[in-house]
Amino acid sequence: MSQTLLEVRNLRTYLRSGGGEVQAVDDISFSIPKGETFCLVGESGSGKSVSALSVIRLLPDGVASHPSGEILLNGEDLLTLDDPGIRAVRGLQIAMIFQEPMTSLNPVMSIGEQITEALQLHHADMDDAEATERTIRALEQVQIPNASSRFRDYPHQLSGGQRQRVMIAMALACQPHLLIADEPTTALDVTVQAEILRLMRKLQDDTGMSMLFITHDFGVVAQMAHWVGVMQQGKLVEVGGCKSVLRHPQHPYTQQLLAAVPENLAKPGQVVMGVNPSAHETAESPGAEELPLSEEPVVKTEAEPSPPGRGQGEGMQIDASPDTPTLSGEEKALLQPPVDEMLSNSDKKLLSVLERAGLRLQATQNVSNDSSLPDEPGVEAKTEPSPAGRGQGEGVRIDALPDSIPLTPTLSREERELLRQPPQRREETNSPARVDGDTDKISPQIVTKLGEPLLQIRDLKVWFPIKKGLFRQTVDYVKAVDEVSLDIPQGEIVALVGESGCGKTTLGRAVLQLERPTAGSIRIDGQELTGLSARELRPLRRKMQIAFQDPQSSLNPRLLVETTLTEPMKVHGIGANQEQRIELAGQLLEDMQLSRESLWRYPHEFSGGQRQRIGLARALALNPEFVVCDEITSALDVSVQAEILQLLLDIRRRRNLTLLFITHNIGVVEYLSDRTVVMYKGKIVEEGLTAKVCGAPEHPYTQRLLAAVPRLVV
Predict the structure, then answer these.
(1) 166 touches 139 (CB < 8 A)
(2) In whole numbers, what is the pLDDT of the chain averaged over residues?
């Protein structure tokens, strides 16, 4: 049996707020054996971070109190130590990785100086050369490129993911006995996340380090945890081994959290074609074998006589839907072969045109007898007996198209005419009819809308000069965005994925003119944005907004939430008076699952996930047409994330909202987006329908991204 490193007994942590007290942590008990990982999960505001801060005693004495409990590290109660005693423990015996690196790193010190300071503080005999060498080695371990040259960089010169890696390097530099990791991989793309998790497991194996790991990503829990604790409203409602909790959750709240994981959410009307199971492999979790987490049968089978031609013996009738999200990619492929393999040659050609127009295929069994239409634009495919020459079994014919098809300008005249032909005409010939130039004369069965996309990006470049020498001459450029072209139709959700530092955020900021492009064209609703002055851009700001990655640094700490939400409304003339604006702000907060009383609080009074929801409310306050969402779900636990994703889909449906969704969470991409764009070193390397990009990636970099995704398998 492993020896216990940390034991928490009946801990209570009360926080003073106004005239009262908040019971942030209420009588929790758990222990962490040496060399093992205890994962703490739960909704934002449930007490996870306060529990971790209590262990390392970073809560101010004037704000926090501990009416009862013990925190035993190797048998010594940390709550009884004086200030010098606890300072000797922090960093050397217990280190912590914080959730928000931008506010945790010192903005006036280089990243190298901050790590060497921590090393020399706990190792007084270490000289500058050795400290520098160990710092560079620590930066290399967490995959900071050109670590020796980035040693002198400041936090603002790094991307969000790179700043988080610096925090991890700083925490691991002193090789602590206990590492407290508060959402350490939320800002990291999946490939770097996989490397960091692998590194943390290796360090744990090499040094015997224990970890208290706070996360909302159950894929990470499955990979990292030996033990899992589930917190709700300050209490530990379930504690147990990783396999036990994830396979057989006992508490209703734990069951609710697992049901909210993106891969377990069903998106109505979405059919995933050609999923590549090899892209969904996960790294090994500690001492775990692979087993899906569903206790309920996904596909029911009933014995029945074999139909003619099926052979002797009993057959099976599949009663459940093959689109159940808990099925693996291989199982979905068996139950539902790719539809395009069953199409005629003419319809295959049509399918390729439709995909370029941004539409997905939706299979229906009886189009003619079903009067209900899908909520979102799609293509109906009707199953029918195979015509001569198509082979045995059932075939598929594209039988109906939506009333409005957003054709991109890149479609040729021949392709546009193909979309105008009724199914019978397409079956008769593979050659489209001659186009006479009159777009008003179209088939009554198919109506097309020959309009421009809401957002058009052409040959966009955002280069940052590298200046050196006495006269600061430009010697080279950092090509953050390099010749990017992209169209986003009205009402579409486009996911932008890639490693931190690949240019995702820079592209999003350049679209909104928060970063001035070096070259290229950006048009929204036909209006050219590049070259406009700040005054000319102001009326266009109402059309386009952004929800930032780091809400702590993007929300003004001196402003009430009420002012944060109503001030932009006042600038753009929304609401007849302040009362109406406050009412609108209250409705926005309720949409974000926050109470109206939150209007009268400051940002520091909220948890990280709650601040992110306030940032999203601010982006939606002006009722924009286009929103850039920069990693807005990275700080959210799975249940709140599920609510936000469903809310975004609902807002898109009601307002015809267009989203550029920057994320590293492939599960979110698969659930939310219509199309996916993959960036690598400032360039777009792959784009297409999400089902195709995530199911059958073509570019090696996309394949590597998907292979690194942590999946909920234990």
Answers:
(1) yes
(2) 76
